[in-house]
UniProtKB/TrEMBL annotation:
<keyword id="KW-0547">Nucleotide-binding</keyword>
<dbReference type="InterPro" id="IPR003593">
    <property type="entry name" value="AAA+_ATPase"/>
</dbReference>
<dbReference type="InterPro" id="IPR027417">
    <property type="entry name" value="P-loop_NTPase"/>
</dbReference>
<keyword id="KW-0067">ATP-binding</keyword>
<protein>
    <submittedName>
        <fullName>ABC transporter ATP-binding protein</fullName>
    </submittedName>
</protein>
<dbReference type="InterPro" id="IPR003439">
    <property type="entry name" value="ABC_transporter-like_ATP-bd"/>
</dbReference>
<feature type="domain" description="ABC transporter">
    <location>
        <begin position="5"/>
        <end position="243"/>
    </location>
</feature>
<dbReference type="InterPro" id="IPR017871">
    <property type="entry name" value="ABC_transporter-like_CS"/>
</dbReference>
<dbReference type="GO" id="GO:0005524">
    <property type="term" value="F:ATP binding"/>
</dbReference>
<dbReference type="Pfam" id="PF00005">
    <property type="entry name" value="ABC_tran"/>
</dbReference>
Length: 300
């Protein structure tokens, strides 16, 4: 399969400071890829560069085979973008927002009407077609943004923190939409700082092809792979040890020592050999453990 998103040694500098620092990765057709990282890691800047909203300072970036700096119009035609900020017009109706986007993309009638109807049905907003967007809930607005991003039949969908600020039920509904679109073959890049989001969208359960996760911190990609690959690289078994206040290494930002072992069995063996097991526990490692191990701090 060919890469539909390609980044090669990409940098973005603001005031001479790199906020994206030598970033390289590919996304294959039909793949779902999550960029995970704390606030300020450079995730949104990466999406903004890939979607032609800001230019890289250095490096090569392609989407759908088009260079985002030299062929921005062609790149834009082939991508759908759902940004963090609600970008639909509150003073227009649901239908009018879709209509405007369809016209901007030169989709002629009756195809335009058919596609608007199809995507509004898909995100369950047909019965709100005449409502002013400012009267919709946050989750509905986000679903409308997704429907609008899909209207011109893009090859790749970019989602920047798609569920930020939404309630648990609405988040889950959006996850189902995202996963369903990916199952239908849509290539996707999403950013998030929610571990559960990444685990739901990229994990092997219920998905023949698990998505990959790129962990970003301070502009750099510090780990890359499926959840299974990340666990196998960093260790599938974990011993956690609660540090007492006086113990060396307890810098209060953490309070816990994490010891990774290749397997759960090895973690258990280690624990069994300890004369004093107070405050110690064994469990399978998860994405959050790996993140904390790599960055030395918790997300959220
Ligand atoms: N236009 C800009 N001018 C100067 N600095 C900027 C600009 N845009 C972003 N930055 C800085 O770049 C860094 C990365 O920001 P970015 O928004 O890409 O991070 P992020 O990982 O998406 O974080 P969040 O989860 O908060 O959205 C931050 O330190 C931010 O302050």
């Amino acid at each position: 399969m060919t890469a539909t998103v390609l980044l090669e040694n990409v940098y973005k500098l603001y005031n001479n400071v790199p906020v994206v620092n030598d970033l390289s990765f590919n996304i294959e057709a039909g793949e779902i890829f999550a960029l995970l990282g704390p606030n300020g890691a450079g995730k949104s800047t990466t999406i903004r560069m890939l979607t032609t909203l800001t230019k890289p300072s250095q490096g090569r970036m392609e989407v759908a085979g088009y260079d985002v700096v030299r062929q921005p119009m062609l790149a834009k035609r082939n991508i759908g973008v759902v940004l963090q900020q609600i970008s639909v017009d509150g003073d227009l109706s649901v239908w009018e927002n879709m209509e405007l986007h369809g016209r901007l993309h030169h989709i002629a009638n009756p195809e335009r009407q058919r596609l608007i109807n199809q995507w509004l049905e898909y995100v369950e907003l047909v019965d709100r077609r005449d409502s002013l967007v400012k009267t919709l809930s946050g989750g509905m607005k986000r679903r409308l943004q997704i429907a609008r991003a899909l209207l011109h039949q893009p090859q790749i969908l970019f989602l920047d923190e798609p569920t930020v600020g939404l309630d648990p039920q609405t988040r889950r509904r959006l996850w189902e939409i995202i996963r369903d679109l990916n199952k239908q073959g849509m290539t996707m890049l999403l950013t998030t700082h929610y571990m559960d989001e990444v685990e739901f969208l990229c994990d092997a359960f219920g998905s023949a092809k698990p998505g990959r996760i790129g962990i970003m911190d301070a502009g750099k990609l510090i780990s890359l792979g499926t959840l299974k690959q990340l666990r196998s690289v960093h260790g599938e078994g974990l011993v956690t040890k609660q540090l007492s206040v006086t113990e060396p290494g307890n810098d209060s930002s953490r309070g816990w020592e994490y010891l990774f072992f290749p397997t759960l069995e090895e973690a258990n063996n280690y624990l069994n050999q300890q004369p004093n097991k107070t405050g110690m526990m064994v469990r399978p490692s998860n994405l959050e453990d790996i993140f904390v191990e790599l960055t030395g701090r918790q997300l959220n």
